[in-house]
Design a protein that fits this description.
Elements: H1 2-32, H2 35-84
Length: 86
C-alpha cells in the first residue's frame, strides 16, 4: 500500500511540475518575444529548464510521495483498528 501510493503520488506530482514548467516557459517566450525569437528561445531554454528543474521536481515529488504514502499507511491502520473494535 505504501509503495503504490507513494509511487503514484510522486509520479503525478513530477508530471505536473514538469508540465507546468514547460507551459510556463512557452508562455513567457510567446508573450514577450516575436514568433521567431520565441521558437529559438524555447528550443534553447527547454533543455536548460529540464537540466535545472528535473532534479528539483524529482526530489520534491519523492518527499511528497513518501509523506502521502506514510499518511495512507497510518490512516489505513487507524481505520482497521476502529473497524476491528465494533
Amino acid at each position: 500500500m505504501f509503495e503504490k501510493t507513494a509511487f503514484r503520488t510522486a509520479h503525478t506530482l513530477y508530471a505536473l511540475a514538469i508540465g507546468a514548467g514547460v507551459i510556463g516557459l512557452a508562455w513567457v517566450c510567446l508573450v514577450h518575444l516575436p514568433w521567431w525569437a520565441a521558437m529559438a528561445a524555447f528550443c534553447v531554454g527547454l533543455p536548460l529548464l529540464a537540466m535545472v528543474a528535473a532534479p528539483l521536481a524529482a526530489g520534491g515529488a519523492l518527499v511528497a510521495g513518501v509523506a502521502v504514502g506514510l499518511l495512507a499507511v497510518v490512516s489505513g491502520a487507524l481505520a482497521r483498528r476502529v473497524r476491528a473494535g465494533d
